[in-house]
Structure of Zinc-ribbon 15 domain-containing protein:
Amino acid sequence: MFFFFIGGLEQQVRQVLKSSAGRCINCGSSADLVDYDKVLKLFFVPVWKWPGKDPVMHCNTCNLFFPQSFSLPPPNTVSTNAVSDVLRCRFCDRVVEPEFSFCPFCGSAL
């Protein structure tokens, strides 16, 4: 007897807890902090659903679920007013650590 199983386990967003809470580790776009459900599907029909344990990050662009501890900082966390001109490269205008002598992005001397 041959039995072919078509189905699987997937995750679905139940509730968005915080929008744009971080960035995706796969594509870099903004990710939301969400509560999720695990869903067992048989022949593409949801059969059983149960809640996930802890909130996770979810990327709407690539549909990736990943732990909150792996999240990159949220986009646009550095305000241009809060960073002085000393911490910015004068050529490429990117934020540079104060202990650097050269810009790590364009290579120019600071």
Observations:
- Strands lie at 7-23, 30-42, 45-51, 56-59, 65-66.
- The chain has a mean pLDDT of 82.
- The chain has two domains: 7-72, 79-110.
